[in-house]
Amino acid sequence: MTIDVRPLTADDAQSCDSVILSLPYFFGDPAGRASCAEAVRMEPGFVARVDGAIAGFLTLKQHFPGSVEITWMAVGAGHRRRGLGAKLIGRAVGWCASNGGGMLSVLTLGPSVPEDVSDGYAGTRAFYQAMGFVALRELQLRDWNDSHALILARAV
Ligand SMILES: CC(C)(COP(=O)(O)OP(=O)(O)OC[C@H]1O[C@@H](n2cnc3c(N)ncnc32)[C@H](O)[C@@H]1OP(=O)(O)O)[C@@H](O)C(=O)NCCC(=O)NCCS
Predict the structure, then answer these.
(1) Statement: residue 150 has pLDDT above 90
(2) Quick one: what percent of the chain has pLDDT higher than 70?
(3) Averaged over 78-93, what is the pLDDT?
(4) Beta strands per DSSP E along 23-146
(5) For residues 99 and 67, is the Cβ–Cβ distance under 8 A?
(6) Ligand 1 geometric centre to CA of 97 (Å)
(7) Which of 122, 103, 104, 99 lies closest to 112, judged by CA?
(8) Max Cα–Cα distance, the chain, nearest Å
(9) Which of 62, 130, 147, 148 has a CA 20 to 30 Å removed from the CA of 121?
(10) Residue 81 Cα, ligand 1 centroid: separation in angstroms?
(11) By three-state DSSP, how is residue 68 classified?
(12) Measuring from atom 35 of ligand 1, which residue has the nearest CA?
């Protein structure tokens, strides 16, 4: 199995859409999927490939000169826990540093939101923490249907 990570291009968008469709628990909201579909067509990012086929991606947005946000990130259902996410974060850290950003941030579902699944956002939060992100605080967001988002960030 060969894994490589390269910059996201417009031609990758449909493959990224397919990655999202493989994760219905995490990307069940149609408005969220539409927003992600727009991001993979507009924003910079990286794709992780397994034997040449796209299996994961992330997108990036620089809201302010000193920091970059991971706006969307996913690894396809059949490819999780193989190190693709870690490789994508490594590239995001490099992109952030070379674009003048000192902090990389991400929003994900907060721990105060109850989940009755074994494979849910607790695993996502554990992933980011394993990647060196620190939880900063929870916020209730109107554009997340009033749900609670956790802000995490790490220095690059
Ligand atoms: C979160 C996600 C991007 C991680 O990508 P991944 O390729 O599965 O992660 P990696 O294999 O690189 O994991 C690196 C380390 O993070 C930690 N980690 C990853 N997933 C974890 C989980 N579910 N539970 C606990 N720790 C986890 C582990 O320490 C892991 O190392 P190990 O496998 O040697 O123990 C991926 O699982 C995913 O797409 N999840 C569903 C969608 C999602 O949550 N997207 C992010 C929304 S903000």
Answers:
(1) yes
(2) 100
(3) 98
(4) 45-50, 53-64, 67-75, 103-109, 134-141
(5) no
(6) 23
(7) 122
(8) 42
(9) 62
(10) 6
(11) strand
(12) 81
Give residues with Cβ within 8 angstroms of 108, minimum separation 6.
Answer: 121, 124, 125, 128, 149, 150, 152
State the Cα–Cα distance between residues 46 and 6, nearest whole angstrom.
6
CB distance 21 to ligand 1 below 6 Å: no
Atom of ligand 1 nearest to the CA of 119: 23
Cβ atoms of residues 108 and 152 within 8 Å: yes
**Average per-residue pLDDT in the chain?**
97
pLDDT at 54 over 90: yes
Residue 99: the pLDDT is 94
How confident is the model over 105-138, as pLDDT tens digits? 999 999 999 999 999 999 999 999 999 999 999 9
Distance CA 95, CA 65 (A): 13
- With a cut of 90, say whether residue 145 has pLDDT above it: no
pLDDT band at 143 (very low <50, low <70, confident <90, very high): confident
Return the residue whose CA atom lies nearest to atom 1 of ligand 1: 124
The answer to whether the CB of 85 is under 6 A from ligand 1 is yes
Q: In this structure, how many other beta carbons lie within 10 angstroms of the beta carbon of residue 81? A: 9
